[in-house]
Write a structure and sequence with these properties.
Layout: E1 2-4, E2 12-13, E3 18-19, E4 24-31, E5 36-37, E6 42-52, E7 57-58, E8 63-65, E9 73-75, E10 79-81, E11 86-88, E12 91-92, E13 96-98, E14 103-104, E15 109-110, E16 114-116, E17 121-122, E18 127-128, E19 132-136, E20 139-144, H1 147-166
Parallel strand pairs: 1-4, 2-4, 3-5, 4-6, 5-7, 6-8, 6-9, 7-10, 8-11, 9-12, 10-13, 11-14, 12-15, 13-16, 14-17, 15-18, 16-19
Antiparallel strand pairs: 19-20
Length: about 170
């Protein structure tokens, strides 16, 4: 794994995290407990801060970045970021599933209990409603979802990644 300091800021992470051998963490990055950063993922906090909560999984090939002097990146608790997603200068609340290959742009806000369908593009400044599924390019609201069912399913996926990461420790 590549851990680099930039401008005196060094990535830190909580207890029981899994960082894949070839994951890259740079600069002002803080990751909570029981989170996992998978193979070929890059989290680059060189131009602005990146905050990642507890029980988060950032799956293979994803890129987390921000915009200089403009947009930091914040990811809440119990968030799953699918393979090859790009998360850039945005805010993702708790209990969110970001589908594989999705792109979340600057200043977008993804509210809780939300699913972003695979391959979707959330444009800059978009506010995604809670308890919804969004999909497409650009992403639009597809439907409302039941909060208790969605939260349980999103939490189940996040908890599965805690199990998967234990296989590598």
């Amino acid at each position: 794994m590549l851990i680099k300091s930039v401008l005196g800021k060094k990535p830190i992470w909580g207890e029981n995290c899994f960082l894949a051998d070839n994951a890259t963490l740079i600069g002002d990055v803080v990751i909570g407990e029981y989170s996992s950063i998978w193979f070929n993922t890059v989290i680059r906090g060189d131009v602005n801060k990146i905050r990642i909560g507890n029980n988060v999984n950032i799956q293979d090939g994803s890129v987390i970045h921000a915009t200089y002097k403009k947009s930091s990146t914040s990811i809440g608790n119990y968030v799953s970021v699918g393979h090859n997603a790009i998360i850039h200068g945005c805010m993702i609340d708790d209990y969110v599933l970001i589908g594989m290959g999705s792109i979340i742009m600057d200043n977008a806000i993804i509210n809780s209990n939300t699913i972003i369908a695979a391959g979707s593009v959330i444009l800059e400044n978009t506010v995604v409603e809670s308890n919804s599924i969004y999909g497409g390019i650009p992403a639009k609201k597809i439907k409302c979802i039941d909060q208790s069912k969605s939260k349980k399913e999103i939490e189940r996926i996040a908890n599965n990644y805690i199990i998967y990461s234990s296989w590598y420790k």
